[in-house]
Amino acid sequence: MNGIKILFKEKLSRFYALFLIFLIPVLIIANSLWRINVYQNNMNQELTNKTQIVAAILSSSISDISTNIDTLQQKLVSIKQANKEIDEINFLRSSDVGFSIANSTNSENQGVIISDADLAKINTSGQPLVRSYVDKSQKPQKRFWLAANPVKSADGSTMGILTVRINTDEIDAISRTTITQSLVLLVFTVFIVFLLLINYFRFFEYFVNFRKIQQLDKMKDEFISMVSHEVKTPLATVKGYLDMMFQGLIGKYDENTRQHLQKISANINRLDILVSELLDVSRLEQERMQFDMQPADASKVIANVINEIGDQAKNKGLTLEHNVPKQLPPVFVDPDRLHQVVENLVGNAIKYTPSGKISIDYVLDKGDLKISVKDTGIGMSVEDSKRLFERFYRIKNEKTTDISGTGLGLWISKTIANHMNGDIVFESKENVGSKFTLILPFIKE
Ligand SMILES: Nc1ncnc2c1ncn2[C@@H]1O[C@H](COP(=O)(O)OP(=O)(O)O)[C@@H](O)[C@H]1O
Ligand SMILES: [Mg+2]
Questions:
Q1: 378 in contact with ligand 1, CB cutoff 6 A
Q2: pTM for this one?
Q3: Atom of ligand 1 nearest to the CA of 412
């Protein structure tokens, strides 16, 4: 059920990402095109106004000479020559058949009769008119603005209509370049956004994978926890029976059988340690390990550890030096967990020291109690020691091949120390020895 939910969520998020990849560029394009359209409309409005003003000024400037055809003709020609934007000026008079062109800067227009509803409207209403049109007969096509303005005499009567044709070549060219530049910029922007989105999509994939890995990791933890628990019970039963056999409670054995039993027992112990360490790892990772924190004397814990595993050192012919007084300033810890950490450090020292000495010392340093376990063992190189506190990490060389272990002890110890507000540090030299120091803040009076 959970799986289906996750799958659905994943599908949905993927769809969402794809949706964004298309939607965002489309929105950018739409916005730019809309902006260009607004710009063009504004431009046209601006041109309409300008054309109107030009036409209005011209009509008022010719109103007093409009009766004199020759003077008017000269004036219109000179105005056109002075302004290259002005393409054509006509002066129309109303007649019975429509409007006849009385004066024109274009000699071909002279005398042409035009019947146009718009012109009639201007004549009657006295209101000017501006419009743009495209001259398709010219190649390339040309856009013009045409303003038609009534020319009024001093008494207000309409004497004729002045039409001014303005070509907007230059302005249109500027508009075209502006629009082209905007479009190029648009393509560029969309391209970059597209790249960014693709990147986002990839990042998103990583995120999905990361979540999957997290889930797998959790499943692995649960699996380890389950298996360890299941193995622990039969192991305890086997150990119980072995103990009874050693105590002679189940019959008698000759020396040979006893040696075999001892081998079985040693291997069962190894298995037991492995399972315990796996359980500790899963408890620590899932934050399920209980810490019964209380003030405790570390010297008692150290004495207990030595009591328990001191024999292992003796059996290997190692000297175990114990330089810790009977009482130390109290530390705030879980005594059982502290026992486990010290046992681990001393156990390692015994395990990785073929001959020589192991010494346990202490220092009080600025509110910290530092307990060190120093050995004259195989030590380790700087390179090998880099990953020392990682789970399952064991240094592999000819000196360690015959020593069994899981590579979990130091990780567990350091994590437990951290949980008790402490830490573990170390120094080591290959073939000389190692010194592991457990640091715990002591309780101040
Ligand atoms: N006192 C030590 N001297 C030399 N090497 C050590 C010592 N303690 C730990 N190591 C190295 O660190 C590795 C990890 O230690 P640990 O986590 O206790 O795992 P394990 O003892 O099960 O191998 C060991 O395999 C060993 O190579
Ligand atoms: Mg160990």
A1: yes
A2: 0.62
A3: 17
Answer for the pair 301, 338: CB distance below 8 angstroms, yes or no: yes
Q: Is the CB of 343 under 6 A from ligand 1?
A: no
By the 8 A CB rule, do 91 and 121 touch?
A: no
- Among 352, 357, 339, smallest CA distance to 404 is for 352
294-441: which CATH topology?
A: Heat Shock Protein 90 (3.30.565)
Q: If you take atom 10 of ligand 1, which residue's CA is the nearest one?
A: 348
- The residues spanned by each domain of the chain are 2-167, 294-441
Could you give the CA distance from residue 227 to residue 319 in angstroms, rounded to a whole number? 39
Task: Compute, in angstroms, the gap from residue 398 CA to the centroid of ligand 1.
Answer: 14
| Greater model confidence, 123 or 386 | 386
The response to whether residue 380 sits with its C-beta less than 6 Å from ligand 1 reads: yes
According to DSSP, the β-strands at 357-365 and 319-322 are parallel
- The CA distance from 143 to 109, in Å, is 20
| Helix runs in 286-320, H state only | 298-315
Is residue 348 in contact with ligand 1, taking CB distance under 6 Å?
Answer: yes
Q: The domain at 2-167 falls in which architecture?
A: 2-Layer Sandwich (3.30)
Going by the DSSP 8-state scheme, the letter that residue 108 receives in this structure is G
Going by C-alpha positions, the residue among 419, 339, 435 that lies closest to residue 385 is: 435
Residue 407 CA to ligand 2 center (angstroms) comes to 6
| Extended beta strands in 53-157, E state | 86-94, 99-104, 113-114, 129-135, 142-152
The pLDDT tens digits of the residues spanning 212-230 come to 999 998 888 888 889 888 9
